[in-house]
Amino acid sequence: SGRLRVETRTMDSVTLSWSSARHRARVWRFPLRVELLCEEEVMATFNSKGKLWFETLQDGPRREMFVLCKCTCRAAPGPSSIGADVCLHGFSHVYGLPEHADSLQLRDTRDGEPYRLYNLDVFAYDLYSRRGLYGSVPLLVAHKPDRTLGVFWLNASETFVNIRYSPTDHQVFPLLLRMQPETDVHWLSESGVMDCVVLLGPGPRQLFSQYAQLTGYQALPPLFALGYHQCRWNYRDEADVKAVDAGFDRHNIPYDVIWLDIEHTDGKRYFTWDPALFPDPVGLQRHLETKNRKLVVISDPHIKADPDWSLFCEARDGGHFVKDREGRLYRGSCWPGECCYVDFSSPDTRAWYSSCFGLDRYKGSTPSLHVWNDMNEPSVFDGPEQTMPKDAVHYGGWEHRELHNLYGFYQHMATLEGLITRSGGSERPFILSRSFFAGSQRLGAVWTGDNVASWEYLKISIPMLLSLSVAGVAFCGADVGGFIQDPDPELLVRWYQAAALQPFFRGHSANVTKRREPWLFGVTVTAAIRTAIQQRYCLLPYWYTLFHQAHTAGLPPLRPLWVEFSRDPSTFAVDHQYMIGGALLACPVTEAALREAQVYLPGCGELWYDVHSAKAYEGGATLSLPLTLDTVPVFQRGGSVVCRSTGSGSCTAELRLLLLSLQGAADGELYLDDGHSFSYRDRKAFCLRSFSLMSGRLPAGEDGAFDCDTVVHSVTVVGLKNKPSTVTVHVSGEDLWCYMTVYHRHKRGLNLRVATDWDIQID
């Protein structure tokens, strides 16, 4: 049972237990202190430093001045800031708290600013900074060899987090040996209620599951969304879009989605099309759909304040805009000029906004159109810190300061509901949002915003995406090549190689940059980019399976090394390489003219195989690997089964199972469904195949009821100590039959249907 039980009670404290009584909470009366214990070991202490804080303002409204934009915000009297501290005993590594352009391991803040959680539109953001960026997830994850712990501070107002490690490297060495490490975390929020959840783990997988149960599981994206996306601010017109689309075909480069930025609209009025540049948007979408490709268009939260525009009048008359402190429409400046901002905190407003995506209302849209929510921190060009004033008023009379970090989340939610309703609830939509909060993972994808075309931004993208993944936002990526400025050819290639090994894969660039389609940089660069994108498509079955794991178990596809090698302290601070699922290790190249990469292969007793050469290496050591422009270090873990596509397109119907054997054993799984609908959820129309090689036998176990034509075309086995003489394949159907063949490491031409039970015996 999960019910709390009182174990002991004294004048000063009470001890509570639950579940199997392994965990206890000891609550001290005065001063208030809460200790969380596991088998008598204190894991965390709430209010250990006495920083529990509730501030109440009794005077009149105070004023906050913002000099740069000459704005004044007023705060009403009443409850204001809240804060608390949590001591994490035995921990010296903490992670999470996205979004910051900083290292994966959070730094000690006593020498500078705290980590700030406040969603802002920051152009060309500073690197290795604790300042807030586009999204906020107030989840901190602590890890040590025998335990993983999480602290979730559920507050959507401006929040600061101070971190203090003890002992520190600056203390005397003998003292380091005597002191148990601990980390003090101090949370301070401008407003709201105190809602703090401690996730007890004990391991990374259990913690991810607990957090997903609390805030929601990652949405299962449609299969096309895991392919390559081509975007630019802006493709000029329909002819330009078709020319780019044809360019991918002409250069044999696969892609699934092309995007349109703000210039596709009629005067920056969202839900419209420029009649001169895009006179036939339906025809354009149908042209792309014949090739199984999609179109994504932008939809920002600001609405042009145009009394001659029916959508603006409808929103104004329906009370769907944010108000100022005096009860008037709040007006701010953004791309269209003077705008009003949709109040997504209102359920009625979200329903209205969702209805705008209906095919009958959004003229020129088709079911193959998907959406990009940008500028939704929200961005206000003439506002304080380029966002909405804190004294703006939302639904129910709530000030903006109370829910600022939720604004983009609510737009993302309304857009999702609109696209689901558009299909009658049958189709999985794709929505990208720049702003996010805890729980955004169940809505779609996010990206790291307006980065710069430099090696430093390529390098920082890895810890940024790992931090998002640890905090549950698994479908994440960075603009390939950098949004701002022009990358040199080597940087562009290395960015494509890195992004092809990350969840969300989109090339994007600003309107002032040079055109950047993959074939514009010469034959050598085009070939390297083509190879990177094709390798992404070869791994699509594996990526899709990983997103099924995220959707059902909360496991992020992109994982810091310590998630898989939780007892190896050498992995705890690594943020330049990472795991893709449990089987692949990637170390993208993030330095110019690098001729040799240093790759740490974790796990003593593990075997790792170079995916290009199949050469084996022992774990627990650092490897020096020679590099060329065409190579990026990727290794497959011994004992794993990775399913790959033999084709470069996302609709290929053939797979190659790559088995790497450690001590004669390997396992893995493959998830399949129709790739686009909710039938996997509503009618169990999916196929989950488990593969396990043991004692020379490879059976395929099945879960689900999805009948597909996908076949296993070939099986590659690496690492067998002795060369077998024969391979016997048993296939079940109406009749049980088998055939024998001479063993070869690369067994091709099998054509085993994934939906059919079969096994392979290697003798």
Automatic annotation (TrEMBL):
Location of the Glycoside hydrolase family 31 TIM barrel domain: 219-546
Domain Glycoside hydrolase family 31 N-terminal: 14-161
Record's keyword terms, sorted: Glycosidase, Hydrolase
Domain Glycosyl hydrolase family 31 C-terminal, residue spans: 554-642
Gene3D superfamilies membership: Glycosidases (3.20.20.80), glycosyl hydrolase (family 31) (2.60.40.1760), Golgi alpha-mannosidase II (2.60.40.1180)
Classification via InterPro entries: Gal_mutarotase_sf_dom (IPR011013), GH (IPR017853), Glyco_hydro_31_C (IPR048395), Glyco_hydro_31_N_dom (IPR025887), Glyco_hydro_31_TIM (IPR000322), Glyco_hydro_b (IPR013780)
GO molecular function: alpha-1,4-glucosidase activity; carbohydrate binding
GO biological process assignments: carbohydrate metabolic process; N-glycan processing
PANTHER family assigned to the protein according to its UniProt record, in alphabetical order: ALPHA-GLUCOSIDASE, NEUTRAL ALPHA-GLUCOSIDASE C
Family label: Belongs to the glycosyl hydrolase 31 family.
Record protein name field: Glucosidase, alpha; neutral C
Gene name for this UniProt entry: ganc
